[in-house]
Amino acid sequence: MKIRLIFFALLLLLAAPAGAQKRKKAVRPQEPSPEEIARQERLQRMTDNTERIMFIDSMVVDKADFLKAYKLNPEVGHIDSYEHYFKSAKHPNAYVFVNALGNKCYLAQTNNEGIMNLYYSETINKKWTRPTRLHGLNNERQFKTSNYPFMMGDGQTLYFAAQGDESIGGYDIFMTNYDEENQQFLRPVNIGMPFNSEANDYLFVIDEYNNLGWFATDRRQPEGKVCIYTFVPNKGRKTYLPDDYTPEQVCRFAAISSIRDTWDDQHQLQQALVRLHEASHRVSNNAQQPSFTFIINDDYTYHQLSDFKAKGNADRYQQLVKLQVRQQALDKALSHARDYYITASQDERDDLKTEILASEQKQHDLSLEIHQTEKAIRNAEIIFLTK
Q: For the chain, first and last CA: distance in Å?
């Protein structure tokens, strides 16, 4: 009996170290990789720089029909799926944007390597030309997929969605500008939060005539559903000041936890809701020409193109509007580029520094051109009126 007790005691002593070692391995924490640490730090910086946006509406729809939720003025252009617009199943899940005149098209296509990139086509003799790659985009193959293009009215500011190393999860929305001097697009920048998230975010569109914007996301949505957010675009990029908002509040704004939290200007909200209501009930063929305010002098203020009397002034004013749109887009692009510069790698900073300096020079040149155009319009009109 004593021998048997000694035998069991020895077994317990032999088993104890093995069991203790096994338990020690089970509770050892796994350290995050350097890539994951860098991603989390970048995510935090993007959250801290969340753009201050007023969201006026949100609508959950079937992903298959999400384009119907975009109530664009026909003067902005037309968005469609590649399959529906070109009556072809060659590039499934690809999307196209066609300008208001119907003669320029920005589209997504998949190449022989299986990478979806953005292309450009135009009409010649009522036929679309062979699509050509947009120069300057994805030259470094930082994007695995580029899709959902939208070109602003200035013909130079392009928004699109992409998946790749520079997105924080799934599709992210990016913006770029066309460099006329070098005839290519500048390096795209991530437009950040609240538009982007760790889910899929895409098809960012701005209606300049109604001063409304839309984008789609599947954050917090079940399979097959997406949420379409309607917002009021900013003329310049604004962020949440740390003295006015807590980090927790900024996180809620970044995630769009509640659109009601963004309603800090009731007058702006009501005006935007009226514009949205009108846009939703507009008959496409009867879209009215937008009015404007252009002061000639103390006695004359114009509101329609037909008000201009001097020869060529109506055309000059339309050119002025395009210049102003380009200026606003460039201002916003510069703000995004400067914000992205903070989170960029050293190589990206070297590229961005050159582009930012070049854009600042363009910004200066645009301001001069706008001033000279306004002055020419007023002088020509005053000469005509005093004859």
A: 130
Kindly report which listed range (68-82, 112-126, 191-205, 326-340) carries the lowest average pLDDT score.
Answer: 326-340
In this structure, the dihedral spanned by the alpha carbons of residues 291, 151, 126 and 316, taken in order and rounded to 10 degrees, is 40
Q: In whole angstroms, give the CA distance from residue 122 to residue 106.
A: 9
- Asked whether the bond before 92 is cis by omega within 30 degrees of 0, the reply is no
Confidence at residue 11, expressed as pLDDT on a 0 to 100 scale? 43
Q: Distance (Å, rounded) from C-alpha 91 to C-alpha 148?
A: 13
Mark 127-166 as b/e (b = at least 16 C-beta within 10 Å): eeeebeebebbbeeebbebbbbbbbbbbebbbbbbbbbeb
More confident residue, 62 or 361: 62
Q: Could you identify the residue written with the tokens 């994805």?
A: 138
Q: Name every residue whose Cβ is closer than 8 Å to that of residue 312 and which is 6 or more positions away in sequence.
A: 380
SS3 144: strand
Q: What is the chain's length?
A: 387
Amino acid 382 reads I
| Token pair in block for residue 188 | 């795209």
Is residue 97 within 8 A of residue 106, CB to CB? The reply is: yes
- Confidence band (pLDDT; 50, 70, 90) for 22? very low
Question: 171: closest CA among 114, 208, 116, 126?
Answer: 116
Q: Are 250 and 47 in contact (CB under 8 A)?
A: yes
Beta carbons of 211 and 160 less than 8 angstroms apart: no
Please check whether residue 255 is in contact with residue 225, taking contact to mean a CB–CB distance below 8 angstroms: no
Per-residue pLDDT band at 94 (split at 50, 70, 90): very high
Mean pLDDT of all residues in 136-164:
90
**Cβ contact 94:147 at 8 Å:** yes
> What are the phi and psi torsion angles at 314 (to 5°)?
-65, -40
What are the phi and psi torsion angles at 109 (to 5°)? Answer: -145, 150
Mean pLDDT of the chain: 85
Closest CA to 380 of 310, 298, 295: 310
Tokens standing for 180?
């006329």
Token digits of residue 286: 């009867």
Q: How far apart are CA 107 and CA 86, in angstroms?
A: 11
CB 209 within 8 A of CB 76: yes
Strand, coil or helix: what is 355? helix
CA distance 271 to 311: 35
